[in-house]
Design a protein that fits this description.
With about 90 residues, this protein is mainly alpha-helical. The chain is built from 6 helices and no strands. The protein has one domain.
């Protein structure tokens, strides 16, 4: 079964968002704490849509992070929200 382009694009945004989140130690620790993931668990599950959606949900939970991440990766905050919705569909 092939993933749709929109799911692939949503996954790509989740990977970019994760890279952004991990750029700061305190934010990375908060991501792990709020998602319940361990570093090893994140490494093992990052390719799964549920984990990718959790990463984007983490950003949505704190609007300043959502906006800052969107700015750095060059998308609108709503694109990150829609990516999470696509990954959960």
């Amino acid at each position: 079964m092939h993933e749709t382009n929109s799911k692939l694009e949503a996954s790509a945004l989740a990977y970019q968002a994760l890279a952004w989140a991990l750029m700061e130690g305190a934010r990375a620790e908060r991501l792990l704490a709020l998602t319940g993931l361990t570093p090893e668990g994140l490494r093992q599950s990052v390719h799964q849509r549920g984990t990718q959606a959790a990463i984007l949900s983490f950003l949505e939970a704190y609007e300043p992070d959502l906006i800052a991440c969107a700015d750095v990766i060059g998308v609108s905050p709503i694109q990150l929200v829609r990516a999470r919705e696509e990954l959960e569909a």
